[in-house]
What does this fold into?
Amino acid sequence: MSKIPNLLIFITLIKLTDFSHRRYAKYNAYYLFEERKGRRFIEIINEASAKDENKLQQAEWNYATNLTDENLHKKLAVVAEIAERTKRRWTKLMRIRWNTFWDIDLKRQFKLYSVLGVFALPRPCLARYNEIVGRMEKIYSTNTICDYQDNTKCNLTLENEIAEILKSSRNEPELKHVWLSWRNGIGPRVKNLYTEYVHLCNKAAHLNNFDNNAEMWLDRYEDSNIKAKFMVLWNDIKPLYLQIHAYTRFHLKQIYGDVVDEQGAIPAHLLGNMWAQSWENIATDFLPYPDRTMTDITIKLIEQKYTPLKMFKTAEEFFVSINMSAMPPLFWNNSIIEKPCDRDIICHGSAWDFANGKDFRIKMCTRVTEENFFVIHHEMGHIEYYIQYKDQPFPFRSGANPGFHEAIGDLITLSVKSPCHLPKLNMSSNGFGDPEGFMNNLFMLGMTKIVLLPFAYIVDLWRWEIFAGKITPDNYNRRWWELRREFQGVAPPVARSECDFDPVSKYHVAADTPYIRYFVSFVIQFQFHKAICEAAGQYRKGDPNKELYMCDVYQKPAAGNLLKKMLQMGASRPWPDAMEVLTGQKEMDASALMEFFRPLYVWLERRNRENCVFVGW
Ligand code: SER
Ligand code: ZN
It folds into this structure.
């Protein structure tokens, strides 16, 4: 303990206080002035950025809806012009000392602007990067394959014939042909472009002070520990996936015999989907209760003379019934909901925000099928989010994190697919409403919702490793199949090599779109579902008549009102705050998902035990 005379301390204190008070006042005046300057600056920059965003979206839309070289070059010119302006604004912005702002809203806007992203690239690199992505998207979107029987018929497209074959064919050589041809048409043509793309992405990341592009992508989650959290979530869900996998493999063995190893990974071409990311197309082959056949919604849609437009209107009506927005007039004028026959377009469904508060669009090559019916709800969920946060300052007009954006439409489909809703659409079959019908329904859902999770996880595990330099181009494909086997328990139907490049047979890889957002979405949508169902009085823990998987929030404005509170926040707060507004908890958490699927989990475990099925691979 030091002994300092009291008086001395007293005098020193007065002096110090006096001095620091004056200094503090000066300091304060300086920062308040800086903050006022910042506020004025942000208003200008927000307006200019929204205008530029509108121009950029127009150019991207023009290319995506007409894949010509001319449109690609026009897009590149617009990108170059906007990148220059954005960089100039960024330089000014970084001169302002926003880190010390008191107003957390203002500070957050600056913080969001402070990451330039790919615009940080020097002009020729940025042009090359956009050209590469544009070319990869085109190669993917214009890929066609030949018919298995008739090799002169070579115009089979992914959305039409190929999807149909994968759904309905049980002819193993035909499935193998389709699986291989699709990959042969893309991988080898894209491999070199992809390698160059990786290099440019990392260059951009370095210019933004990130170690590599994986770090830049994950920055949107605002949590340095986020990768570990994804892993925890996956480990929580894995036991349920293992049961679905084992049950499916057991039944596939009965259909395909020797092609399937009863203890090994499942051949990836037998699962009813090009990427084995959703298995619902084969689920009706081995429903838990086969006598209680499931409604074929596609047939019901056709019987009831649904058109793409009527499907859109039906989805819209659901949102309106919970007090959310109708699609605005420009949406109906500008959206493309059917494939035009006079040009190539990117058919992969997407929802667009033209950043002016009025112009929102969906682009989709809709066909009258069950899958498309739910994709429409998914895309419309994005539009609802855009509409709800349209009055936020420009940098906040975004999802709380990318997974939130993907979850909104899916959240609504959880109600639409519930056993209580389908009868309201005249889309249920007899026996649907009993416990066996419920189990079938839950199984169908598990075959999409649970099955996507390991796939969504590895698409980005693989890319994170690439961006971090852990995998080099001579190992791209080998590592891809290692991860496919390890997490999904699927294997390629024929030996693969580095002449093949299978990951780009998936749209989001070719199109430079991160994919972990779907993993996040497929977990949190169940947390959201639980919250809105509770608000709507449709779910009560422990009540056997109000279980989570039965809940339908149709015509329950209380559900929509609660959801809107979160959507209106946009990205104005870190995502745990948005999560809290809706669910009362701040964490991503698999327990709602596990509760939803609990009856299925118990059923599968018992059935697999009874059948002495090997679990795992
Ligand atoms: N929309 C995502 C995809 O198409 C996830 O379902 O892969
Ligand atoms: Zn989406």
Notes: The mean pLDDT is 94. Residues 6-64 form the longest helix (59 residues). The beta strands are 266-267, 350-353, 360-363, 490-491. The domain at 211-268+276-610 is CATH 1.10.1370.30 (Neurolysin; domain 3).
